[in-house]
Amino acid sequence: MIRASNLSKFYGGKRALGPVSFEINDGETVGFLGLNGAGKTTALRILACDLRPSGGTIDIGGVDAVAEPHEVRKRVGFLPENPPLYMDMSVTDYIKFSGELRGMSATAVKKRLPEVLETTDLADVATDLIGTLSHGYRQRVGVAQAIIHQPKFLILDEPTRGLDPVQIVEMRNLIHDLKQNHTVLISSHILTEISQTCDRLLVLGKGALLGVGSEADLAKHKGEIRQITVTVRATGDDPKTKITKVLQAVEGVTKLAEPYEQGGGLSFALSTSKDCRAEVSRAVVEAKLDLLKLDYARSELENTFIGLVGGNDASN
To answer: Which residues, including other chains, have CB under 8 Å from residue 186's CB and lie 6 or more apart?
Structure first.
């Protein structure tokens, strides 16, 4: 278990974090959410014993992280936002080097290496120089150095940063695999990734902890939020204007987001005051438009997050 109590960090007179208190149970995957400057990276660096807190206590697996940081580092794997890679080293040499830095013997590293290469899908580039790899592969090398010593706790700071859509899916799958053997903490601005990957969320804003819990738990504190996504075939002259007028006239629709093209149609995200799927579908059909898709989402993470952070900003 990870237990932080009244954790804080100051740079001179400027507060970067806290005081915040939270607990993370063994086997959980927890997401740190927050805007730039919210304190996410500061919190993760403190938990990884890469940064000393100004105040408070941290207990990681029964060890005081402030008093015994070297002991805690043996139990923690850390992927910083910018992985500490040596571009002139091969993938294999770098992973071996990372293991030895963490106190592993050469024999232990050699035994562990094939499993790490398989887990991170790096076997095909094992002898390549890191400097010749794509950004996606470099992120995987960063994960490899974080797990080589088989840590119990794994901390990933923006693991999908700079990745293309295919690489994001691959990284998501890798994180799902890592969840089987690690307690995982993830910081990300990609809210859908957090929603699909994490069991519980910690929302930070201006160094303060704004909310803790599952997506559903957080949404309860912000009231009931509904959203409908409707996709209508784009035909005729100026279909965007025609479809917009039809949807705006539906009782219960309070707001329309700018539409985007999808599968030969235009997709609209509708904020609603009630479940008005039936009314929306009826209006589209009666307007002689082709309804291609209708989704109903409730308490979406994006809405919850914006509500929490917006509420915090409004009070400062």
So the answer is: 29, 30, 31, 32, 156, 159, 175, 194, 197, 198
pLDDT tens, residue by residue, 68-108: 999 998 899 999 988 889 999 999 999 999 999 988 999 99
d(CA 44, CA 34): 13
Strands, E, within 174-290: which ranges? Answer: 183-187, 200-205, 208-213, 226-233, 253-256, 260-262, 265-272
Query: Domains, the chain, ranges and CATH?
Result: 2-220 (3.40.50.300), 226-298 (3.30.70.100)
DSSP 258: P
Beta strands in the chain (DSSP E): 2-11, 14-24, 29-33, 55-60, 63-64, 76-79, 153-157, 183-187, 200-205, 208-213, 226-233, 253-256, 260-262, 265-272, 291-298
Query: CB under 8 Å, gap of 24 or more: what pairs does 6-11 form?
Result: 6/55, 6/56, 6/57, 7/43, 7/46, 7/53, 7/55, 7/56, 7/57, 7/58, 8/53, 8/54, 8/55, 8/56, 9/39, 9/42, 9/46, 9/51, 9/53, 9/54, 10/54
Tell me the pairing of strands 29-33 and 200-205: parallel
Q: What is the pLDDT of residues 176-215, one digit of tens each?
A: 899 888 999 998 766 767 777 888 888 888 888 888 887 7
Rounded distance between C-alpha atoms, residue 20 and residue 177, angstroms: 30
The letter for the amino acid at 61 is: G
pTM given for the model: 0.71
φ/ψ (deg, to 5) at 195:
-65, -40
Return all residues near 140 (Cβ < 8 A) that are at least 6 apart. 120, 121, 122, 171, 174
Q: Tell me how far apart the alpha carbons of residues 205 and 36 are, in angstroms, rounded to a whole number.
A: 9
Distance of CA 145 to the CA centre of its chain: 20
